[in-house]
Amino acid sequence: LILMAIAFPSFKLLYLMDNQGLFMDLTLLTGLPLKGKVSIPISKINSKSTEIVPFGVKGASNNIRLNKHSRDITVFNNDIISQLIGHLLGDGSIHYTRTSITPYFVFTQTIKRFDYIWHVYLSLSPYCGRLPLFNPGLRKGIPYPFIQVMTRSYPALIPLYNLFYQPLPQAALNAGQRVSSKDKKVKHIKVITTELLQYLNPISLAYWAMDDGSWTPSGFYFHTEAFTFKECYLLAAMIHYRFGLFCTIQKHEGKPMIKIAGKSMFLFRSIVTPHFHQSMLYKLRT
Question: Quick one: three-class SS letters along 62-103?
């Protein structure tokens, strides 16, 4: 009995030593004299920690269930925030479940762009609890399989949700639209406000371009049909102010699209190319 009591804790130790994937690199920002990187098991996170910034080993957090305290003190580093901003302008979204009080992020892309999807997953994997999900979807009756990358629910996503989402009546009023009584029960929708300016940088611009951009001989288009004309003019103004790029608003089937003028393409490429994934460089014709 004594030997068995000694053996069982050893099995766990041997298992952890053989599965380095169960460890996540963490930066702990605490009141203790602790600096730099440390590697600790998720189950051993000190409750005195005030912030956790996951980074490093890709896919390390798969199948690891974080407790509420661990998720509450998780924060996103600046590069990840910039990437999420780019996705939210493109193919990303933030959602609440019916029972949750914290939101989660979802990135959706066609399976034809699998290399890019995997790149996005690897960069966000410390925040994900599962592998990307495959969905054999339909578009206008035609098979259109797509893949979704989903993060866990984190309180750190609430500021980004508040930045991009408003209740429909308020969003419609901001866009100058008439609001009916039915609209008051509709969920939040994605909007563009001036607060976005402080988040725009080369990383966010690059991920936005990879998600929803397309090259033409006369310039580069951002497919912003989901936004209003007023929001697109605001976006174009912020792009010009932040990056010095000349933009115009084009109407496509009655909906707005932002176009980077041909004379700004050299500058545009120099800004976003360092942050473009190899599989998406065709959009820049480089």
Answer: CCCCCCHHHHHCECCCHHHHHHHHHHHHCCEEEECCCCCCCC
Region of residue 244 (left: phi > 0; alpha: psi -120 to 50; beta: else): left
AA identity, residue 92: G
Which residue has tokens 């269930």?
Answer: 65
Contacts of residue 139, defined as CB under 8 A and 6 or more positions apart, other chains included, come to: none
φ/ψ of 8, rounded to 5, equals -60, -45
DSSP H helices in 157-264: 158-164, 168-174, 202-212, 229-243
**Could you give the dihedral angle defined by the CA atoms of residues 242, 263, 227 and 163, in that order, rounded to the nearest 10 degrees?**
-10
Q: How far is CA 246 from CA 205, 212, 239, 262, 282, in A?
A: 14, 18, 8, 9, 22
Give CA torsion, residues 194, 198, 201, 207, to 10 deg.
Answer: -60
Residue 1, Cα to own-chain centre: how many angstroms?
52
Q: What CA–CA distances, in Å, run from 22 to 64, 78, 126, 129?
A: 8, 25, 11, 12
pTM of the model: 0.77
195-227: pLDDT as tens digits: 999 999 999 999 999 999 999 999 999 999 999
Segment 77-101 mean pLDDT: 93
Identify the DSSP state of 190.
Answer: E
Answer for the pair 108, 148: CB distance below 8 angstroms, yes or no.
yes
Band of pLDDT at residue 116, cut at 50, 70 and 90: very high
pLDDT value of position 12? 62
